[in-house]
């Protein structure tokens, strides 16, 4: 009886062990033949369209990858990158396909494929109209130039008194009262600055010659300082009226998308920004002078300046804070390896290059 029970128990354990080892290691070991929920959001020119199957560089690249993985895509549209990350993390989507920058913070929530696009931040501005005459006149009211005029007037006024004290003994023009005498002295100082002479050069007055020479040298110094101050004031005025790179951003009114890489960059520098949720909203803000610049991903700004904003906006300065775009999947998903393998295939057979040239070549 005991022996028979042991035999049946052994057979039962063997059957249970066989059933367990026959089960798949993952609930979904391969995406082939499946229909995946693909989270996306519009970011020109990577994703174009806010419903249904989108167009754009990333959408076309994903279509090439999905054919190699033998899968179908069910597109689900969101408004922000954070919503894409949450959708993948919480299982509401199988993969996020967009212009999604890979960051350490996002890597904690999801897994990323290999990077498929090198990006970075750049600045978009509306070109300022050329106003050379107005800019020149405005430069004369700069604090530095006003300060120079005040100091120069004080120096000339003092020199006019020196000339008056010397000339009033023999020159009748300086003997008609204090105010008229100082007026003649001011005119005399200006003549000395301009010509280096005052009065009759044949008179053997050594003191007067010394005074004239000293005043002429002072005039040379003041004229040189005036030239330098005017040049500096106009240069500063020109620079402060334009944004040419990241170092010019502090103190300017800037727009960008909240919770984006650009927003994080500005927050780290303590630079406030105006949040915009769509490209149309950003374009309206800069064209109506609500903001002076837009900071965002360089490829999007470059494409925008070459298409919708051609002739009205321009991208300035170098690309800063390098970024890489990748596809996001749930942590531990086997889909990551399949995407990477498909990426290598489209790199190798030239498909990636063809898609890239279609959307980013100079001819477009």
Alpha-carbon distance between the termini? 86 Å
Strand order of the largest sheet: 2-1-3-10-4
Strand content: 5-15%
Taking all Cα atoms into account, the compactness measure Rg is 38 Å
Tell me the number of helical segments per DSSP (H or I, 4 or more residues long).
13
- SSE pattern: HEHEHEHEEHHHHEHEHEHEEHH
CATH class of the largest domain: Alpha Beta
Helix content: 40-55%
Overall geometry: rod-shaped
The low-confidence runs, each spanning 5 or more residues with pLDDT under 50, are: 5-9, 13-29, 237-241
Please state the second-level CATH architecture of the largest domain: 3-Layer(aba) Sandwich
- The CATH superfamily of the largest domain is Periplasmic binding protein-like II
Number of domains: 3
Let me know the largest β-sheet.
Answer: 5 strands, mixed
Helix vs. strand class: alpha/beta
**What is the average of the pLDDT values?**
81
CATH fold name of the largest domain: D-Maltodextrin-Binding Protein, domain 2
Q: What's the β-strand tally? A: 10
